[in-house]
Write a structure and sequence with these properties.
Helix content is 60%, strand content 10%. The strands form 3 sheets. A 7-stranded parallel β-barrel has the order 1-2-9-10-11-12-13, surrounded by 7 helices. Strands 4-5-7-6 form a 4-stranded antiparallel sheet. A two-stranded antiparallel ribbon has the order 3-8. It contains 26 helices and 14 strands. Helix 24 crosses helix 26. The protein is α/β, with parallel strands linked by helices.
């Protein structure tokens, strides 16, 4: 076996793995210390629900707090809002600006405090500029909302609006007022964050100086949110919200499941909760029950409800990063010698060059360098796992029993999963830093990591060099000969269909990678996922346990029986499962132990299905599968 023949390189991989596991242990500790989730209810909808049931806003908020709500989200008002509410009126529009008269004295004072307006009399305020500009200006949170939240002891999450001409003088006054009103976090209304485009640096500086957290709403795609989040680390909270439009299409169970899954699987720590039903006669009771159910489901998953705080940074000692990088280099060396037999000075020269290069880039405090090393790991270890599983398989069919095929295949299947997992742990160890945990930064090589290992596997087996190592001249001749033979053969309809199906599968897999792929999932699949979520501790990835792992197991069984034709096809399809394992560990925002359990459960389920497939086809044909092509 390749690992026994290269004991020193294998030792380097093991050392790199140990350092990765140590780093991930520190990350797990950080994740374990932050199990508090904040439920924040929409103030405007809470007031509507209270009024519909004949309660005051304070009584309604108190009921929702008793159910589990921690804070209340309050929308910032603008001059336009006050005009529409007839709280102010326009009394003069001229070249010098716009004059507003307050019907409630003081409602425009925040404009004056921020330097956006000038008070010219007891109840009149002048804004320089046209009315089109003036109506966009913010006037702070509604005083009634602040007083009602304070009366029930609920902190405020402020929903701020963007406006033209943001600068640090305005922002300092705004942040000081927010602090005074008990605001600990802000999220932004409409489709852009405060300060977009040119004022993001000032916004981030002021918010951090005042200790106010930025609520980074996942999947919202607000203009400027990513750039602001990058500037706000570590003052970032991941937020999950269901839009008003979506609320009308979801059942209560689906809405609860969305919030719980966001908190459990993506480390979301602030849930922005709209009222589920405002038409019911008991609007307060119905929505109180809805909030209580979210809290209860969170508790079942080991999460508690309270005031949210951001995650601690994971220590990343330089020595650990260097050893993980050397482990990646050693894995790449093992992949090379799995295909090409290298000896003498060339062996040591290549090993030295690889280890020096990856040690050097991992020693640098650079996110880009770490991403390069992580991408290398995602490409190397699934391919190494596949070649290890196929290595040494006989060239001609034998007549071994099905039992022999199954037990040998199980061992090789387990080895392949373990090798891929080693690469996944190293990738996660390199990327376990706060920006990745908060989804402020993400691994940019996910798409490549899905496609390249599968293409590499197809090329290696099509070239006939995926079954074992040989000297370069022999492997080169083998590749040229096999590829020339393939290119000169007529294309049969069956092979064309199989190839097209594989391309479609790979395309769908790549398109659906990530939490926000944009590719719609069918209702049937959603129901199947919900069933798995109910039955299992964590749902494995469908493409792993239903496609990739069974195909890999069956391919190994066929390879062990000497039937390389169908084995090669199934092994390449099986690479989908290995790539998916790596992809699981690339989601740094997912708790590491959840990722580990997802891989274990997926591998066990896939192995069981693979065994059943081999038994079924063996029973029908008297052997694992007929040989069709060599």
């Amino acid at each position: 076996m390749i690992f026994r023949e290269n004991r020193f390189i294998t030792l380097l991989v093991v050392i790199g793995l140990v350092c990765a596991v140590w780093t991930l242990t520190l990350r797990h500790s950080s994740e374990s210390r932050n199990r508090v989730v904040e439920i924040s209810v929409d103030y405007a909808e809470a007031v509507v629900a209270s009024a519909a049931y004949g309660k005051t806003p304070v009584e309604g908020l108190r009921a929702f707090k008793d159910a589990g709500a921690v804070s209340v989200s309050v929308q910032e008002q603008t001059v336009a809002d006050l005009l529409n509410a007839n709280v102010i009126q326009t009394v003069e529009i001229g070249a010098g600006g716009v004059v507003f008269e307050e019907k409630t004295v003081g409602v425009l004072q925040p404009l004056v405090n921020m330097g956006l307006a000038e008070r010219i009399s007891q109840n009149r305020v002048k804004v320089a500029g046209g009315v089109e500009y003036a109506v966009l200006l913010p006037v702070g949170l509604p005083s009634a909302a602040v007083e009602n939240a304070r009366a029930v002891g609920m902190p405020i999450v402020a929903r701020l609006v963007n406006y033209p001409g943001v600068n640090s003088n305005h922002l300092d006054a705004k942040a000081a007022l927010l602090e005074k009103e008990g605001v600990g976090a802000v999220i932004f209304a409409a489709d852009q964050v405060l300060g977009f485009r040119g004022g993001l640096d000032e916004v981030a500086d002021v918010l951090k100086r005042h200790g106010i957290l930025f609520g980074f709403v996942e999947f919202a795609k607000q203009k400027g949110d990513q750039k602001l989040a990058e500037r706000m680390v570590p003052y970032v909270l991941n937020v999950h919200s269901i839009t008003a439009a979506e609320m009308g299409t979801l059942s209560r169970n689906e809405a609860v499941e969305r919030f719980v899954k966001a908190a459990r699987e993506r480390n979301v720590r602030l849930l922005y909760v709209r009222m589920f039903d405002l038409a019911d006669p008991d609007a307060v009771g119905v929505n109180q029950s809805y909030i209580r159910e979210i809290k209860s489901e969170l508790a079942e998953k080991g999460l508690t409800v309270g005031r949210a705080h951001t995650f601690e940074n994971v220590p990343s000692p330089t020595a650990a990063r260097i050893m993980i990088g050397i482990g990646v280099a050693a894995g790449l060396m093992l992949l090379l010698v799995s295909v090409v037999r290298i000896s003498g000075i060339s062996y040591y020269a290549i090993l030295l060059a690889l280890t020096a290069f990856f040690a050097a880039i991992c020693a640098v405090e650079s996110e880009f360098a770490l991403k390069v090393s992580a991408l290398t790991a995602t490409l190397v270890f699934p391919t190494l796992a596949l070649l290890t599983a196929a290595a040494g398989s006989p060239e001609t069919p034998d007549a071994r029993s099905v039992r022999a095929y199954i037990w040998r295949s199980l061992g090789r299947f387990a080895a392949a999963v373990c090798i891929t997992t080693v690469g996944g742990l190293m990738t996660a160890g390199l990327l376990s830093r706060l920006p990745f945990m908060l989804r402020v930064d993400q691994f940019a090589g996910v798409k490549l990591a899905h496609v390249l290992p599968i293409l590499a596997a197809g090329l290696l087996f099509a070239g006939g060099v995926g079954w074992g190592s040989d000297v370069w001249n022999n492997q080169r001749e083998r590749i040229i000969s096999n590829l020339r033979r393939i290119m000169t053969q007529p294309v049969l309809i069956g092979y064309a269909v199989v190839g097209l199906v594989m391309l479609v599968m790979i395309g769908i897999m790549v398109a659906r990678s990530g939490n926000d792929s944009g590719v719609e999932v069918s209702g049937l699949e959603l129901r199947f996922r919900a069933l798995l979520d109910t039955l299992l501790f964590v749902r494995p990835r469908t493409k792993e346990f239903l496609l990739g792992h069974p195909a890999l197991f069956a391919g190994i069984a066929l390879a062990m029986s000497g039937r390389r034709g169908w084995a090669a096809l199934l092994l390449v399809i099986g690479m989908i499962g290995e790539v998916s394992i790596l992809n699981t560990f690339c989601h740094i925002h997912t708790p590491i132990m959840l990722s580990v359990w997802r891989v274990i459960i997926g591998a066990l389920a896939g192995a069981v299905i693979g065994v059943l497939l081999v038994l079924i086809f063996s029973r029908r044909s008297g052997r694992p599968s007929p040989e069709v092509s060599r």
